Amino acid sequence: MRADALDVAEAIVLDRGYRGVNMQEVADRVGVARQTLYSEFGSKQGLASALVLRLTGQFLDGIERALAAHPEMRAAWWAAARYTFDAAADNPLLKAVLVGDGSGELLPLLTSEAAPVVREATERLVTGVCRRWPGLDHAEVGVAAEAATRLALSHLVLPLHPPDVVAEHIAELVVRFLGHQG
Fold first, then answer.
1. Which fold has domain 55-178?
2. Which ranges carry the HTH tetR-type domain (predicted)?
């Protein structure tokens, strides 16, 4: 039911924007009572948060693949950042979150209310990076992963430089911070 509700909510956001999402319509299209949705998500904003976290998970799957594909740390972080920016450019839901419908209800989930996204990304990056390079200190990787996540989110919200440049900046910062060659 949860995945179905998120699929329906995503379809509505893509069709009519977040303002068009109505819990009763989502419940009707999923075939459950509206109260069931409220029990699962708490509120319409809870549904939006779950939708953004699912999107985050999808991005992190690709980021993990990009990191794993490169034996050299700098190349791995560059590829992970570049994957993020390329996938973001092609993702209609992320575009809807960033551009929005003027309601401003989704964008904060990647800015002022992005703590769940940053935590999820940091945790998964620490796990993947420490598995790939087991000699690294987990706490230091956590600092680097959180910084990289915040920089990537900042670029998505307000791109001031070309994606290649930002990817290089992220890779450089992470590699220097971790004291890793390459």
1. Tetracycline Repressor; domain 2 (1.10.357)
2. 1-59
Total Cβ atoms within 10 A of residue 68: 15
**Tens digits of residue pLDDT in 11-35:** 999 999 999 999 999 999 999 999 9
Please give the model's pTM, rounded to 2 decimal places: 0.91
The C-alpha angle with vertex 132 and arms to 130 and 136, in degrees rounded to 5, equals 40
Residue 176 tokens, joined: 């220097």
Query: Tokens 């987990």 correspond to what residue?
Result: 138
> Using CA atoms, how far apart are residues 81 and 67, in angstroms rounded to an integer?
9
All structural domains of the chain with their residue ranges: 55-178
